[in-house]
Amino acid sequence: MPNPVPCAIVIFGASGDLAQLKLIPAVYELCREKLVSDKFVLVGYARSKEKKDGTPLTDDQYRKDCYDAIKKHARRQPIDESVWKRMEKNIYYVSGAYDSAEDHARLATKLKELDKSHETGGNRLFYISTPPEVFEGIITRLGERLKSKADTSSGFERIIIEKPFGRDLQTAKHLNAVLHQYFEEQQVFRIDHYLGKETVQNLLVMRFANSIFEPIWNYKYIDHVQITVSETLSADDRAGYYDKSGATRDMIQNHMFQLMALVAMEPPAALDSISIRDEKVKVYKSVRQMEARLTDTHAIRGQYGPGQYKDKTGMKPTPGYTKARGVAPGSRTETFSAIKLFIDNWRWSGMPFYLRTGKCLPEKLSEIVVRFRSPPLTLFQKKSDAVYPNDLVIRVQPEEGISWRLNAKVPGGQMAIKSVALDFLYKTTFKAEPPEAYERLLYDSLLGDQTLFIRGDEAEAAWQVIDPIEEAWAKSSTPPQQYAPNTWGPKAAMDLIELDGRRWLHSSADDEPIVACSL
Ligand code: NDP
C-alpha cells in the first residue's frame, strides 16, 4: 500500500461526537497500520476553550481526550500503547470561531510552525466535522486565505466535508458554488461513509471481477431490488437536529442512493474516480422523476408513535416522535420512508427499486436484496409459487457479507425443496474484521484518491431525485402515517410493495419453509 505523504490533518468540530467516536480512533488505526506518515500532525479545532467541567482545553488536555476516545472506540482492543506514544506527540488543539478570519489566521500560523517542527511539508487536510450550519463559514475563511496567498505553502490543501451536503438541490448547488469559488473539485472530498465500508466496495468487485453476474444483471432476470437501512433507536435524543432533515434526506439521498447507484451503474471504463463517478451520475439522471400524484402510493412517510423501542440495554420507552424534545409542534418530518423508484434505461427498464429506512424499527441492518425472477417452468411444484426465487443478499451491516439463496433438495426419499443460503462472511473468510469506513476514507484522502467520495454533480443529481418527493410531501394534505415503535413501519409501506405482489425481505427473517412436492 502506498505510504501517504507528510500532512497536517485539521479537524473542525474536534470536540464533537463524530471526532471522538470515529475520526480520532480512525487516525489511531492508520498510525497502527503505518498508513500515516510519521511526519503528520493532528490539529483539533473547535470553539470550546474549556471542557464541560471547566477544565481548560489545552494541547495536553486534548491529547488526554483523544486517548480516552481511542481507548473507548478504537476498533481493536486493547490499544497498542506504543502506537499511542508515537501519535500523542503529534496532537494539538486550537480554539477559535469557525468563521472568524482572525482565528483562522491563528490556525494558519500554528500550522506553519508545525510544518517546521514536524516537517509536514505544507500539506493540509481540513476535515469539516461540524453541524452543517457552519460549513460555509469554514469553507469561506479557508478559501479566502488560500486565494490571498496569505500562507504560501508549497503543499496540497484538501477539504473533507461531512454530510449532509445541502438539504435540497438549491442548497447543494449553493454549497458547491461556495466551494468552487476557492477550491478545485480535485481538492474537495464530500464524505458518505457508506462508501468506505468493505461490502459496499465489494459490490464493485462482485459485479465487475466475476463474469457470472453481468449477463443476468438486468430487468430480464432480476425481478426487483430492495434496499433496507433500518435503525432500532429513536430520534428522541437528537430530535432537534433530526427534525430539520428526516429519514429521506438523512439516509436515502446519500447512503441508500450510493448503494442503489453501485448496484445499478454500468461497468465503468476504468476503475478511477472519474469513470466510476460518471456512471453513478448517469444512474441518478435516469431515475424517473416522481410525479406528485404518485407520492401517496410510491413514497410513504411515517412517524413513530409512543411505545417501546430497542436500545442496546433492552426496551426503552418513547413518548413518540412528535412529543420528543426539540421537535416543532405539528412536525411532519418523517422518521420512516419507503420509496419505489424506476431507473429508465436499457438495463433496468420497468423494474422497481424499493428503498426503505426508518427509526424505531425491530432490527438494525443495512442490506440490499436482489431478487431474481422465478424459473420460467414450474417443474417442481404443483402450486406455481412454491419454489422460492433466488436472492442475492448483500449485507452492509451487521455481519458484513454476501449470501445467495438457492433452492436445494432436502435429503430423503421425498422430493422436498428448501431454500438454502451460500454465505460469505468477511469475519470468517478473511479471519478479520473489516476496517472502519472512516479509516479507509481518511487514508484515501491523504493519498488524494477521490473514488470513494461524492463528486459535486453527483450530490446535485441525487437531490434532483429527492426534491420532487419532498415538494409533493410539503404540499400534500396527507400527514406522515403513524407506526408503532419496534414494527416495520406504517401499513402503507407494506402496501407499497405488497400491491405489486412482492414483500419486504431481510436476511434475518425466518427461513422459507420446506416445500414438499411431487414429481
Ligand atoms: P456535533 O453536534 O457533536 O458537533 C461537532 C462540534 O461542532 C461540537 O462539538 C461543537 O464544538 C460544534 N458545534 C455544535 N453545534 C454547533 C453550532 N450550532 N454552531 C457552531 N458549532 C457547533 O456533531 P457531530 O460530531 O455529531 O457531527 C459532525 C458532522 O458529521 C455533522 O455534519 C453530522 O451530520 C456528520 N455525521 C455525524 C455522525 C455521527 O455519528 N455523529 C455520523 C455521520 C455524519 P464547539 O462548540 O466546541 O465548537
Q: How would you characterize this protein structure?
A:
The chain has 519 residues and is of the alpha/beta class. It has two domains: 7-162, Rossmann fold (3-Layer(aba) Sandwich); 195-516, Dihydrodipicolinate Reductase, domain 2. 34% of the residues lie in helices and 21% in strands. The chain is built from 15 helices and 18 strands. The chain has helices at residues 17-32, 59-73, 81-88, 101-118, 135-147, 169-182, 198-208, 239-242, 247-264, 273-286, 295-298, 426-429, 437-447, 456-475, 491-498, and strands spanning 7-12, 40-46, 91-95, 124-128, 157-161, 188-190, 222-230, 299-304, 307-311, 314-318, 336-342, 352-358, 365-372, 391-397, 401-410, 416-425, 481-483, 515-516. Strands 17-8-11-12-7-13-14-15-16-18 form a ten-stranded mixed β-sheet, with helices on both faces. A six-stranded parallel β-sheet has the order 3-2-1-4-5-6. Strands 9-10 form a two-stranded antiparallel sheet. The termini are far apart. The model has no long low-confidence stretch (mean pLDDT 93). The site of NADPH dihydro-nicotinamide-adenine-dinucleotide phosphate (NDP) has 20 residues, from helix 1.
